[in-house]
Design goal:
With about 240 residues, the chain is mainly alpha-helical. The chain has 8 helices and no strands.
Length: about 240
């Protein structure tokens, strides 16, 4: 199941990249929808499951959520750092951002694998959120290497690398075991990751230089979809 969904993440990433090449004027709606879906996973699946499975108090669980949020913030501003400059000849910066997006996608794949280690229900909800998010990752990869002196073939090659990354991340979790008593902490940290990705990364990106009315509607649609998926899977 994990491998099949990881392949789905591959397809989702490639589809997002091809969409970016063709429909530049609609990208903000996709990013807004992805932000809502990722936040929906955090609020309606990971958060309640982390509180229920957590070995300690609610305060301990929320502390782990905060830890996940700020760890991802640090990664995003150090390991995942990139330049948004689009001046001609700056291919190196485009490559750097493409590499960091691939690392980011690898973590997405690991999130799927770890979620399935905990339970099939949690894994399915996380998978839906990640699949929506990976579509945006494909868009971001193409944007990262556009306007940087990089050929179309090179852009497609970087898109392929980013699409393979979540598959590798998911497969890596087959070789990593998590003790039962640590499941709650893992869920809490993942919740922090998803809160950061949705609120601090995708939402601002979707609203940049675009009217917020349609992007807000797209975000609420993503939240509603994941709420429905979470309720359906847990029934």
């Amino acid at each position: 199941m994990v491998f099949v969904i990881a392949l789905g993440a591959f397809v989702s990433t490639v589809s997002g990249g091809l969409f970016a090449l063709r429909f530049q004027d609609r990208l903000h709606l996709i990013l807004g929808f992805s932000a809502g879906s990722v936040l929906g996973v955090a609020f309606f699946d990971l958060l309640p499951e982390a509180i229920e499975a957590g070995p300690g108090s609610v305060t301990a669980t929320t502390s782990m959520i905060a830890l996940g949020f700020f760890v991802y913030l640090i990664l995003n501003r150090t390991l995942f750092v990139y330049s948004r400059s689009e001046r001609p000849g700056e291919a190196r910066r485009g490559y750097l951002r493409a590499v960091t997006l691939a690392i980011h996608s690898c973590i997405d794949g690991m999130a799927i694998g770890f979620a399935f280690h905990i339970s099939t229900q949690i894994g399915l909800v996380v998978a839906v959120g990640v699949l929506c998010h990976d579509f945006s990752d494909g868009i971001n990869t193409i944007q990262a290497v556009s306007g940087s002196g990089i050929s179309r073939n090179a852009r497609l090659a970087w898109l392929f690398i980013d699409a393979v990354a979540p598959v590798g991340g998911a497969l890596a979790t087959f070789f990593i075991s998590i003790p039962q008593e640590e499941f709650g902490r893992v869920l809490a940290v993942l919740c922090g990751f998803f809160l950061y990705i949705g609120a601090a990364d995708l939402l601002p990106e979707s609203e940049h230089a675009h009217p917020t009315r349609l992007t807000t509607a797209a975000t609420l649609l993503g939240v509603g979809l994941l709420y429905a998926v979470a309720r359906m899977v847990t029934q």
